[in-house]
Inverse folding.
């Protein structure tokens, strides 16, 4: 660890607000270890347990929520980071934090709030994450959690404002159509963003630690959504409707992959020794076999990326001195798993109808809070409301308030305020 620590300089460890040394009897922790602890103890991190990942957290005891997903992403990011020689605490903290800005109902709620926030610069979960880390979380007044520069940069999946954002299109992991462009900072959070990007190369390049976090997220949900669907009985890996799945893959993720290419990708996956040959039956043996497949897939994807990255560069794999390399074959295999989950889990008619009702609920809640504020706002947001200089700033406060809610608390607030 000492060798890895030495690859990061004082600028990487700098915080927006300088902090005095801790008392001498406190346990000694390095700066990046402190960053991780601050995210783990943050209120927005705890709320992830009650926020939608793919289906609502109240629907099943087994299904993953945003918190369990984030923990799994963190484990993958830490292991891959250690293998590459990148600082594992930075990558793990970025993974733990990557979904903090998600509002109630996941990407569905993000879509609704983006439309509602048009007059104050829109809404984006990754930009909201940066806002939480640098402003809204209560640790250091004016600086949020006051994380180090290297950690904040690793948390920035889309290091650009809306005005510079490339058009993305497509769909999110949960099947929700992407509305507009992905971006990582609101205009009024530019001072913190410009500070954390100090020393970064010009353009839209991400540091390698952010690339590790992003890949870990991709690997986690591609594998775990299939696992969840298998346990729920909606996915049977031994009897796939190839035509239907391939149509979904092309419509959602990879329009240029034809049937022959996708057949070859699936054949490679089926040659993995733990790929099932019998339908899942819910027994301990079947569950163990499914867990072995999950482990093998994660190891396969991360191992391929590690080998390709080492082949492309001698490193060191720190900040902007190298980039992660994802082989095309690995990307295609991850895409096929996403397509399987999308086809069998995310296109159900009842889910689409539920999402429409969720968007209506958030719209009514934002409208009601705007009309009643500051009445109705949590005490945490009252100073922001009173300091707001115009209608756009006041709208942003209401959006921050609603985005902070869990699925259940959004419904409770709606029942209390909008009935």
């Amino acid at each position: 660890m000492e060798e890895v620590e030495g690859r990061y300089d004082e600028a990487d460890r700098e915080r927006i607000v300088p902090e005095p040394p801790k008392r001498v009897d406190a346990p000694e922790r390095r700066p990046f270890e402190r960053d991780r602890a601050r995210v783990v103890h943050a209120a927005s991190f705890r709320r992830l347990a009650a926020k939608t990942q793919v289906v609502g957290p109240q629907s099943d005891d087994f299904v993953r929520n945003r918190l369990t997903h984030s923990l799994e992403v963190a484990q993958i990011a830490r292991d891959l980071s250690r293998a590459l020689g990148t600082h594992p605490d930075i990558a793990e903290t970025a993974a733990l934090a990557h979904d903090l800005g998600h509002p109630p109902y996941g990407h569905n709620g993000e879509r609704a709030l983006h439309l509602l926030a048009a007059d104050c610069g829109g809404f984006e979960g990754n930009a909201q994450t940066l806002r939480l880390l640098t402003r809204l979380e209560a640790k250091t007044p004016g600086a949020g959690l006051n994380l180090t520069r290297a950690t904040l940069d690793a948390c920035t999946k889309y290091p650009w404002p809306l005005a510079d954002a490339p058009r993305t299109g497509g769909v999110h992991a949960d099947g929700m159509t992407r509305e507009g462009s992905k971006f990582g900072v609101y205009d009024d959070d530019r001072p913190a963003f410009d500070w954390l990007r100090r020393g970064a190369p010009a353009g839209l390049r991400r540091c390698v630690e952010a690339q590790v976090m992003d890949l870990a997220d991709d690997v986690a949900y591609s594998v775990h959504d299939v696992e969840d669907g298998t346990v729920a009985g909606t996915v049977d890996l031994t009897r796939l409707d190839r035509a239907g799945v391939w149509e979904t893959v092309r419509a959602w993720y990879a329009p240029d992959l034809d049937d022959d290419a996708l057949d070859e990708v699936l054949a490679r996956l089926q040659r993995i020794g733990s790929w099932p040959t019998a339908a899942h039956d819910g027994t301990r043996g079947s569950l163990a076999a499914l867990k072995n497949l999950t482990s093998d897939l994660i190891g396969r994807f991360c191992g391929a990326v590690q080998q390709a990255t080492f082949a492309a560069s001698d490193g060191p794999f720190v900040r902007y001195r190298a980039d992660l390399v994802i082989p095309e074959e690995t990307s295609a295999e991850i895409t096929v798993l996403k397509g399987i989950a999308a086809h069998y889990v995310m296109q159900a008619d009842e889910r689409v109808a539920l999402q429409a009702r969720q968007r209506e609920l958030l719209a009514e809640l934002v409208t009601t809070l705007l009309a009643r504020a500051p009445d109705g706002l949590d005490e945490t947001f009252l100073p922001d409301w009173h300091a707001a200089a115009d209608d756009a700033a006041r709208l942003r406060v209401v959006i921050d308030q609603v985005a902070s809610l869990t699925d259940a608390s959004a419904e409770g607030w709606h029942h209390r305020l909008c009935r």
About this structure: The chain has three domains: 2-196, 208-350, 363-417. Residues 2-196 form a domain with the Hypothetical protein af1432 fold (CATH 1.10.3210.10).
